[in-house]
Amino acid sequence: MIKKSLPLIFILFYFHGFSQKTIQEEIASNILEDSRNIKIYLPKGYEKDSLKNYPLTIVLDAEYLFDTYVGNSVLFALKDKSPKQIIVGIPMKNTKKKDTYFNSDNGMLYESNIAFYEFIKDEVLFFMESNYRTSFFISLVGEGTSANLISHFLKEKKPFINSYICINPTFSKFVRQEFQSYNLNKFLKEDNTFYLYTNNSTSFSIKKQATIGTLQRDLAALKLKNFHIVNDTIKTASNISAMSEAIPRAINKVFEIYAPISKEEFKKNIENKSPKDAISYLENKYIEIEFLFGSNIGIRERDIYAIENIIIDKENGDYLRDFGKMILKLFPTSPLGEYYIGRYYESGKNIRKALKYYKIGYGKMDPGDPNSEAFYENILRLGGE
Hints:
With 385 residues, the protein is of the alpha/beta class. The protein has helices at 15-18, 62-78, 96-100, 111-131, 145-151, 175-181, 206-220, 239-254, 263-270, 275-293, 301-313, 320-330, 336-347, 351-363, 372-381; strands at 22-29, 34-41, 54-60, 86-90, 134-144, 163-169, 194-201, 227-234.
């Protein structure tokens, strides 16, 4: 069971803040032979930076899921736990049965369900990618039978969805066979990262809990390096409460690589690595952030400090120079790259080169930076000016 990541009450304070950033668009669908209105949330700063791209999230059941998802996404971004997202909402109040139900006799989608599936795949995605600055990372979010429809995107021969967020899913009794037919091992061939989130809940009927529980046990047996399966269980007496808790839990997991290194991440993935491997891990983390989310955020100082002791204490500090070079590559404006290279040369008694890098690093610092004096002391200590 995943711990509740953020209290839902906090997102209420942000609802008033994103309403003015939500726009309405109409898509004339050839597939549905009808026009559909969609909501689009553009994150703060979208208009100011004409080069930055954003992950795209498509939320079905927008009449009740859209605001909740946007509110959570705003909070996660403000807390530096996820990138800002472009979020599309597709309202389905009067069309849900037509769009997302399935044949209970065999689990197959009806013709109208297939049409809605193709509408999302070929028209909504095309519209968004043609008109807005989206990154490669695409998420689908749905509840109930919409969650079931989302799971059908797993059958695509060439996966193009990164995260499948199935909230309070209503699956058919044939869901195990359906998932087996999707051949999830194919994701291993993709140079990309994928997530599948499903939640069970004590608020569901016994029959529904059993269906989801059986599927989750099947999924738990899969070991796919780049396909992260999140089997959640929420203890609550209310389906609405389960939905409200599932959204932040899913966001927390789907964007976990974006967040700064946590104590859990350090202990699990970094603590026992060699200096060389720790540097490689940190570098790959930020390369993947930029690749997936279109977010060139440099490198967080707290993440540099998170692995500092490994670099300094292991192998006689021989990797201090490599550490500094990696920082300069990802965060060229930071003085920390020169600092660690300077420490490397100082430990080798090459004072001339150590002074050179300490001076370059100090030159990057704002005189008002409270750390500038401590940085300058390195120069004075080695006889520089």
